[in-house]
Amino acid sequence: MMNAKALLKASLGVGSFLKAPMVEAQPRSITAPQPVLVPIRAIGPGERVRIATHLLALEQHDRYLRFGYAASDEQVQRYVDGLDFERDELFGIYNRRLELIAMAHVAFAPAGQLSDCAEFGVSVSRHARSRGYGARLFERAMVTARNEGVGALFIHALSENAAMLKIARNAGATVVRSGSESEAHLQLPAATFDSRMSEIALDHFAEVDFQLKTRAKQFWGFLAGVQEIRRGVRDARDRTAQ
Length: 242
What we know:
The chain has helices spanning 4-12, 48-56, 60-67, 73-81, 133-147, 162-170, 193-241, and strands at residues 41-42, 89-94, 100-108, 117-124, 152-158, 174-178, 181-187. It is of the alpha+beta class. Strands 1-2-3-4-5-7-6 form a 7-stranded mixed sheet, sandwiched between helices. The radius of gyration is 21 Å and the shape is globular.
């Protein structure tokens, strides 16, 4: 059976030209197993419900860290309704039930403003923490921002949001603290052929993974329905025999 990396190469029909960054679920260590690829999929406007479900499930303190204030359900919904999928890029990590368990928002500057800057925001469901998903989403955001001609990626975070600031520092960003808030900015190199091929490879891998999960969910749903029918037939037969 091929592993995920081999499956990706086989499905693309390409070989050594793929130099996409390895998206790892956990940091390397001497005793750790081989890194596992984390499929990170672009999110479109048809998934607003999934986005809202993910964000509304965040606990109050997590919403505070994500938005910089204790956002109410109504404020979270307004944020979701106001997402501009034409201008910005959103990325997500899904579990086997196709639930969104981590997402990133790369907000590009509106028309008429500095076009070479973008802002990064991320949220991870509590049960999916400590897997490196925030860092992997940041890496994925850097690839897209770089290929879109962005020269500086910014993060605005509360100073107490240690996890977010650690991700920024580990990526080489400069962090400036001003009281309860901090600003981080990372200079991005110009896009290259390799960076564009990396983005294509990552998008393809994520889409293949999502389609496989979709088919698996449909199959298990069908199987559950068949089993329910079988139980109904068996129960009816038992009642008839009594």
